């Protein structure tokens, strides 16, 4: 492998290491998920649209890849205006697409140009950066490594510039994920649910770190084509759904996760229907004694719990009060514990 090829490999390893170090591991239990069937890039909850308005944004019903797979998609012009290239430098024209014979990616790209040799400190630092969808970058003749990122997907290649304008097209086989949650037919509001995205299947051996953590409802995450393991967290406790999904290049995968849970408000009262007692600390346990909720305080604490049976334990003024209760999917309500 030549020097230019070696730097491509090293850059990719550095990007993976930095991403992995920045994210924290997350663990969950399994329940259920609903993913609409894939059609030819139609918005049957399998349609990709880059985040943000403008050139690359795709709305429902639009496609990213030509209907005819043999159709050639025009790229940027082969020559840039001579006035745009300073004397003594060479024009490098860049563009990206989802795959061979597919449409260009026209938004949310970040281009970086690296030298083929590290600096005196042994680091590879970009000498140029551009966020245009199809930039023309002026550089002295020589060897470079070009990296383009599109969300969490990326591509890199070695480029040799001589005296003429050089055109390079990068293929980024990426798709998008857009996640939402519901209980029954009711959508879970933004801010009450979050998602972690892991590479590969949940059944693959070994520990994994998420490539994206704390993803919110409706947020589009761009990832390389492949299989991903989604962990959905509704509330802060035990309503957790784990599922595998497949992302295809040029498509948006809309995933609707169904939770079997309810929101419960806890109250310690002197009499049924009375005022809640202040200065109360709560715990919630399973019938087997596993502590699901630990030491939360407040007169009206609200917790989201998975469907099942529980025991509420209230501590107030040195005394302990208990009550068993049942959580039914979609049935929010109050659980009163009598202080006597």
Task: Walk me through what this model shows.
About 21% of the residues have low confidence. The strands form six sheets. Strands 1, 9, 10, 13 and 16 form a five-stranded mixed sheet that branches. The chain has a four-stranded antiparallel sheet with strand order 4-3-6-7, covered by helices on one side. It has a four-stranded antiparallel sheet with strand order 12-11-14-15, with no helix packed on it. Helix content is 6%, strand content 44%. Among the domains are: 104 residues, Immunoglobulin-like; 78 residues, Immunoglobulins (Immunoglobulin-like, Sandwich). It has 340 residues and is mainly β.
Fraction in helix:
under 10%
Strand content: 35-45%
Largest sheet: 5 strands, mixed
> Could you give the order of the helices and strands?
HEEEEEEEEEEEEEEEEEEEEEEE
β-strand number: 23
Q: Give me the secondary-structure category.
A: mainly beta
Global Rg: 27 Å
CATH architecture heading of the domain at 30-48 and 174-258 = Sandwich
CATH fold naming of the domain at 30-48 and 174-258:
Immunoglobulin-like
CATH class of the domain at 30-48 and 174-258, named Mainly Beta
